[in-house]
Write a structure and sequence with these properties.
Shape: globular
Radius of gyration: 15 Å
Number of helices: 6
CATH class: Alpha Beta
Strand order of the largest sheet: 2-1-3-4-5
Order of helices and strands: EHEHHEHEHEH
Number of domains: 1
Strand content: 5-15%
CATH topology: Rossmann fold
Low-confidence stretches: none
Structural class: alpha/beta
CATH architecture: 3-Layer(aba) Sandwich
Length: 139
């Protein structure tokens, strides 16, 4: 079973609900999912909280087979952008999910550095189809 690190903003109820929904979709395809809002943010040590969360997320990326990154919004969430860059530098496949129809016009869909670092999917169904092909190619 391949592990997906789900990189996404997690600062509103709507974002967290979307992330949980997406995690369920990925899980239903047979992927194990590391979701930071559930797998690293429940830290009660207020003194070392940031260090612990950072290290758990770093380990989550390192232990994943691929990254799915939600890149909606006028600009990509800064934490998600960092996770994309780190995973890309580590040679891990990064699949960007953009359900937001806004673009940068002639400049591209999202920030150039992000767009060139990901396999871009423009819908959940496109993402799921791409992940099915990854899953099935490894059987």
């Amino acid at each position: 079973m391949k592990t997906v690190y789900l990189a996404a903003p997690l600062f509103s109820e709507a974002e967290c609900d979307f992330n949980r929904k997406l995690k369920g979709e990925l899980h239903s395809l047979g992927f194990k999912v590391f979701l930071p809002q559930e797998d690293s943010n429940n830290v009660h040590d207020t003194t070392n909280r940031q260090k612990i969360i950072f290290n758990k997320n770093l380990t989550g990326i390192e232990n994943s087979d691929l990254i799915v990154a939600v890149i909606d919004g006028a600009d990509v969430d800064s934490g998600t952008a960092w996770e994309i860059g780190y995973a890309f530098a580590k040679g891990k496949p990064v699949i960007g999910l953009r359900t937001d129809f806004r673009t940068l016009g002639i400049e591209g869909t999202v920030n150039l550095m992000i767009e060139r670092s990901v396999i871009l999917c423009m819908s959940i169904s496109e993402l799921l189809n791409h992940l099915k092909s990854i899953r099935d190619s490894n059987k």
